[in-house]
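Look over what follows to help learners.
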Amino acid sequence: MLLIKPGEVLQYMIEITGSSPVGTAILQYSTDGGAVWKQERGADGELISETGTMSSLQVLGWVKNETAKNRLYRWFVTAITSGTIPLSLSKNPQPVHTFSLENGIYLFTNPESPNSGVDGDGAQIAGAGSFYIDTSTGKTYRNEGNATLPMWVSF
């Protein structure tokens, strides 16, 4: 579970490589400390969830808490019949554009320079070799760290 304060951004991800688990994962939030859970919806109004056989699946998105209340987020997994479903939640700023290239390599664009570290841009998703373009200056950065600890270096 992860607490997201008003104005903060939640980054969510499901990434499956290799195995093919079968089940359902639903992103939920609570505004009362976990007494009542509600299903989160994306900008398109659709529920944020995945159901069925998940093979080579990659779901990445952001939700901004635009309410005046803190929200506690969790993944709720139901009906899993085989395998495990790797899920993650983190507090990360939302890049303007994110493109998944392959094998954990991403391209991010944003009108500001990237932040490195465990809570930095692309944390928990941007593997070594990922790229970040600051669209306000045209500078390009490469992740010389890893997904757990991105280290953005200009080149």
Summary: The chain has a mean pLDDT of 82. The first strand starts at residue 2 and ends at 4.
